[in-house]
């Protein structure tokens, strides 16, 4: 079966958030991303080379997590290149159904919840999702002005973690006001308690701010625990700040280190 112009147009149209929202679909590209997501989300269209499809058939994960694909197109690599948004296309492109994730206040009040305030870079968001997955944080709440998690660059950066972490978009101020101080809410700043000395509980909210501006003023008043990641050696001039994904990794790692002691 040949890859049609209509299918190529559909794949490329999903680069727009409006289209993704209207159709309830998103695109994943690459052997790893597509291979992982096939076991996690219904796939509406799988476009892949013969060798990728052959490897998929022999994948042992199919026994416990069967793959659900509505339509499969075996395509030459040149055809995949025509449809791809990547500079170096791999062997597979998948169109998947977007999950309808929901999160309740009771969910937030137990365990760790990441909240992201106006994260703009797709790569940063994707990396943060992957970090959350690594450290067993299964939920992320994004402010409405955070980049779309189903942006193809974000999906690519998650390396399949998007299928294991529940991600919702909501008014962070509204959610934090409902907590009414019943849960510690941590934020990272250039001043505050040193993260390596601070008390870090197993039930908490961790807020990470925008790449350039940090946590917004409207959200800052709900932060009741300010954390500082110190540079080394202290007193020596270094970079002004850390990339938000790097800061998230350090913060999540330190929270989890305390739990496993």
Short description:
The protein has helices spanning 5-13, 17-23, 31-37, 50-57, 77-83, 105-108, 122-134, 152-158, 172-179, 217-220, 244-259, and strands spanning 25-29, 43-48, 72-74, 92-97, 112-116, 139-142, 166-169, 185-189, 193-194, 204-208, 225-228.
Structure description:
This protein is of the alpha/beta class. 34% of the residues lie in helices and 19% in strands. It is built from eleven helices and eleven strands. The strands form two sheets. Strands 7-6-5-10-8-11-9 form a seven-stranded parallel sheet, with helices on one face. A four-stranded mixed sheet has the order 1-4-2-3. α7 packs parallel to α8 and α7 packs parallel to α11. The longest helix is centred in the C-terminal third of the chain and has 16 residues. The protein is elongated. The protein starts with a helix and ends with a helix. The mean pLDDT is 91.
List keywords for this structure.
261 residues, alpha/beta, 7-stranded parallel beta sheet, 4-stranded mixed beta sheet, 34% helix
């Amino acid at each position: 079966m040949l890859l049609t112009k209509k299918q190529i147009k559909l794949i490329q149209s999903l680069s727009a958030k409006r289209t993704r929202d209207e159709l309830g679909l998103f695109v994943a590209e690459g052997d790893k991303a597509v291979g992982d997501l096939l076991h996690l989300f219904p796939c509406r269209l799988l476009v892949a080379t013969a060798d990728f499809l052959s490897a998929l058939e022999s994948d042992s994960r199919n026994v416990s997590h069967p793959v659900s694909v509505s339509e499969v197109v075996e395509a030459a690599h040149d055809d995949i290149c025509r449809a791809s948004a990547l500079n170096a296309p791999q062997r597979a492109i998948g169109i998947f159904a977007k999950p309808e994730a929901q999160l309740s206040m009771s969910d937030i009040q137990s365990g760790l919840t990441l909240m992201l305030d106006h994260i703009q870079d797709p790569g940063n968001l994707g990396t943060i999702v992957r970090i959350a997955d690594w450290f067993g944080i299964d939920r992320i709440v994004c402010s409405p002005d955070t980049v779309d998690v189903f942006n193809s660059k974000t999906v690519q950066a998650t390396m399949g973690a998007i299928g294991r972490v529940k991600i919702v978009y909501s008014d962070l101020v509204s959610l934090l006001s409902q907590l009414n101080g019943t849960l510690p809410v941590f934020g990272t700043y250039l001043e505050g308690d040193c993260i390596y000395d601070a008390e870090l509980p197993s039930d908490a909210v961790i807020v990470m701010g925008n790449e350039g501006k940090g946590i917004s003023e409207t959200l800052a008043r709900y932060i009741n625990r300010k954390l500082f990641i110190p540079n080394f050696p202290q007193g020596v001039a270094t970079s002004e700040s850390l990339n938000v994904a790097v800061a998230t990794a350090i913060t999540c790692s330190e929270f989890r280190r305390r739990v496993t002691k």
